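Below is one record:
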Amino acid sequence: MKTDFPYTRDLVLVGGGHAHAILLKMWAMAPLAGARLTLINPAPSAPYSGMLPGFVAGHYTSEELYIDLVRLARAAGARVILGKVSHVDRALKQVHVAGRPPIGYDVCSVDIGITSGMPELDGFSEHAVPAKPLDDFARIWDGFCRGTGDAEVAVLGAGVAGAEVAMAAAHHLQSLGRTAQVSLIDRSRALGRLGTQARKKVLASLDALGVDLIEHAKVLRVESDHIEIEGRAPVLSQLTLGAAGARAYDWISELGLAVENGYLRVGPTLQSESDPSIFAVGDCAHLSHAPRPKAGVFAVREAPVLFHNLRAALTGGAMKEYHPQSDYLKLISLGGKKALAEKRGLAVSGTMMWRWKDQIDRKFMRQFDDLKPMVALELPSEHARGSEAHRSPICAGCGSKVGRGALTAAFDHNGAAREDVVALPGDDAALLQMDGLRQVLSTDHLRAFCDDPVVMTRIAAVHALGDIWSMGAAPQSAMVSLILPRMSADLQERTLAEIMETASEVMGAAGAQIIGGHTSMGAEFTIGFSVTGIADAAPITLNGAQAGDVLILTKPIGTGVILAAEMQMRALGTDVARAFESMSRPLARDAEALAGAHAMTDVTGFGLAGHLANICRSSSVGAELDARVVPLLSGALEMSEAGVQSSLYPDNLSDALPLMNAPKTARGRLMLDPQTAGGLLAALPENAVENALKDLQDLGIEAVQIGRIIEGPMRLKLIE
């Protein structure tokens, strides 16, 4: 979170629909000074509805289907909040998302699509999958196609969307060599909104693919393996898909805004008829001045008007009006690589129509790939010697820390010796002994790599507590150290409320009390904590490792390379989200299961190999690290193979070389990747390993045995 101008207004986008995705792309090209942009969406990516039938048919991969919202938000300078909106408090101007503090807004735009769930149909919620929202549907379909044997699929709703899904499913299952029975069921006449020519052609395609069309059917109940229909034999179905009964999400009707059948009523400016600070676009909106059917083409064409009007609402400018076209081109997938085009009653089908549709869809998706990443600094012709090595943008998190060599030299002089301060060479924490009380003291802070203050606070708190947990101590107290980017008093209050509620939650769950802190304004968001802990027994340090000990790691590694790739907009949003989830997981239970360790540390800035080297130095032992079994975060190896490295990697490599050879492989290089809020690395007696691993497994922690402590001299053998 870095800005050249103070933030003065909050614009919150609820949902990652097509209009909002296009708006983010436009914002990246022309940001608005003083506006803080926030996107809230349940997932880090959003499927493009135009390519969904092609995905179901096997013509597109899941990677081609999704718009990467994390990458798009990075380009737009927006913060991403992953979660489902449950309520909007219009009086307080706050958006509520489960599991986090409310998000304040000055202007809010809603683009969340619709759902085709049918909770009123007996058994649907338990045994069926709505085609909308598309995320869950795409994931479940992908898993279903990995099965074998006969396949029975039923689609409820024989409109255009249902027919496309049924034809695509039949085509793909047949192409996989599976005997498939696909049923398309409707309570009235199928494809009633299509013209005569188009309907006839789609019905012919359904018949050619062997889809069983059942019209005028009253569905009584959905079971796990069949559908009960009044007056008919049950329809067998291993997977039932709902494509009928599209409706708005329930929480929209609870806002106290004007609605039409649950959809937000908006006028020509796309503002709510009841509240001008709330906009709505796409399928969740009802254009009261020009009602239109639910179709993605309208959301796409609303985007430029929405972009202009949101900026006008934030700046006090004049609004534009959106007037949709009276008719639009319908491109309907026909299962295989054939499509039908219809407009004004004229229908044409065949492979040429598929190629045309494919070109349109791929062009739409390509716009989200053409994003500008952070680039190396341009050096002037005259520059100080050594500047060439520091052109790359500095990484955030632990990637922005100072290397071990500089730290060792800087802290070589520790001032006057005191009897109540116990020296712990190599450890990041201090040990204070007073009247029998052992108190562990540590401090840590992070340069923000995520613009969501809640995520950053949660990760920074877990990161700071890592030193306490790794020494076997119980967290006691915490002080907050915070630098906020320049923003107005109102936004300061909103941001501090999010940060402090999150900090209190994490520290409280760990057993620590927040006792104060310090805040200031600066160029970018930085957050840290000074923490204390109480050790009932002698703390676990770095200097107790013994030959024969087994090395246990409790979290996968790779945060440094993923965060570096995210800065360059090369990482997948799903991989970034999984990395955030890993970094946010506290280590209290890990520490309890590893309480019998001879030596232990949390894996942070020096990387896994660097922290293991510190154990070797402190304990005067050697170690073997088997990189082949070290768990990696999703996407980390791919980015390392592509040459992505954290800016701290060269320092970590230089520091480790006296004890080990330079890594030869991409996986080996990841052993020196700086970690943020990494797992615990413990040297455990061999006779305690089995029980410890079982305890960790029972807790849902995927701990792994990654190596062994061996006799000195001090060295680190990296097995690649």
